[in-house]
Amino acid sequence: MTVRGITKRWLFSGIGLIMLVLVLLIISFGFIIKSYFYSGIKQTLDGRSNELANIFRGYSWGSYIGFNSTVRQYVEEFPDKDLMELMAFDGEDKVMITSAGFSDRSILNMPDFNEAKASEDNYGFWVGNLESGEKVMAVTRCLHGQGNKYLGAIRYIVSLENVDTRIYIGFTILMFLSILIVVTLLISGIYFINSITNPVTEIARTAKLIARGNFKAKLNKKYNDEIGELCDTINYMAEELGIAERLKNDFISSISHEIRTPLTAIKGWAETMQMGDDVDKSMISRGLDIIVHETERLSGMVEELLDFSRLQSGRMVMKMDKIDILAELGEAVYIFKERAISENKSLIYNEPKIISPIYGDKNRLKQVFINIIDNALKYTSEGGGVSVGVTEKDGRVCVSVTDNGCGIPKGHIDKVKEKFYKANSVQRGSGIGLAIVDEIVNLHKGKLDIISEENFGTTVMISFPVACDENKENDI
């Protein structure tokens, strides 16, 4: 397995740090344990050597013979012979007797003995290896008689082999436990890291598929945690992108059809008029009217697309001023009067006498009203009707447009304000008109609500705050 990414960082930062801490702890523990045992042994040796002052107190050494006999008695009766070895030296620095029974041994490697003779406190300490290689700890005390006359010395020796063996065993056990901890952490950590890296790798692979346009790619949710939530989010994103892709394709198809229709009409009448003398003036006049109408229709589509682009990029500018909303709404209703009559539909405008002014861009608000009334007439069958009304309540002006047309299915009401969405694919339109209306209303701090029942009709309500100094803005 190639160690990289999160696993590599975890190995170096996590396991590496733990191993460093364990090594430092082991070294510290070994030093502390060694110091503890060695300090305990030294205290025992110092305690035994310090008792010499009490044992030989009151003796007045007149000769070496009295000193030698007393020392021999002390060594022979020493109670801790099984724990340490004693060596007694005479005034000529020769071994008089040892607790092990050897005597007449010359002084070889005894740094503590030399230190005791040279020091003012007659004390010497040493840790090292004997000629045999055995590691020992030794303490030497020199004894003086009348006139500070050097009489001899007693040396206490303890083997450190058993102590070092115990320290080594403890160190080995600690090392084994540390290795066991590291191995356990590695196994559990690798399992845990894999539970993260494997799903992340799968998420990355699926995300690449989605980026390439495969919106059917799905992730298998294995854990009910943050990774599981991420999988759900990716799946939801793919589903939404798939829907957006279908809506976009439908929009392109729809807008292509919408543009092709007036272009076909313009081209057809232009070719007809090119026929020359065979076309009478009435037909030419009719053709020009159609060309102008279809050109205006194309211009409206282009302007709608430009508005949508400005809204998406945040470049739409509103010229805000205190306006009479009734005037703009009245002009929008008047525009559709002739169309309603020609389509055998009624268009009723219940205009109130007075309504408080609002702050807004009159051209954009007129665009909103035109779009909503156009939709109402478009989805109203022949013989049906559309009514427009204005009310004022609680500091807000509400414009309502109601039709008795086909209505909107319940499952589509929440989506009709989304870009590219068309609840009825049969009717003409780009699917972005209502999205533009919603954005313009929001820029006016207004609210757009749609109430509809399929086969019974639809009511679109737009409310704006009345003009006051707090909501006045010159440009948005």
Explain the layout of strands and helices:
Blueprint: H1 5-50, H2 52-55, H3 64-76, E1 85-89, E2 95-98, H4 111-118, E3 123-129, E4 135-144, E5 150-159, H5 161-211, H6 226-273, H7 281-313, E6 321-323, H8 325-335, H9 337-342, E7 346-350, E8 358-360, H10 362-378, E9 385-393, E10 396-403, H11 433-443, E11 447-453, E12 457-465
Parallel strand pairs: 7-9
Antiparallel strand pairs: 1-2, 1-5, 3-4, 4-5, 6-8, 9-10, 10-12, 11-12
Helix pairs in contact: 1-5, 5-6, 6-7, 7-11, 8-10, 10-11
Structural notes for this entry:
The mean pLDDT is 81. This protein has 476 residues and is an alpha+beta fold. It contains 11 helices and 12 strands. Helix content is 52%, strand content 17%. The protein has helices at 5-50, 52-55, 64-76, 111-118, 161-211, 226-273, 281-313, 325-335, 337-342, 362-378, 433-443, and strands at 85-89, 95-98, 123-129, 135-144, 150-159, 321-323, 346-350, 358-360, 385-393, 396-403, 447-453, 457-465. A 5-stranded antiparallel β-sheet has the order 2-1-5-4-3. It has a 5-stranded mixed β-sheet with strand order 7-9-10-12-11. The protein has 3 domains: 9-165, PAS domain (Beta-Lactamase); 226-312, Signal transduction histidine kinase, dimerisation/phosphotransfer (DHp) domain (Helix Hairpins), CATH 1.10.287; 318-471, Heat Shock Protein 90, CATH 3.30.565.10. It is rod-shaped and about 160 Å long.
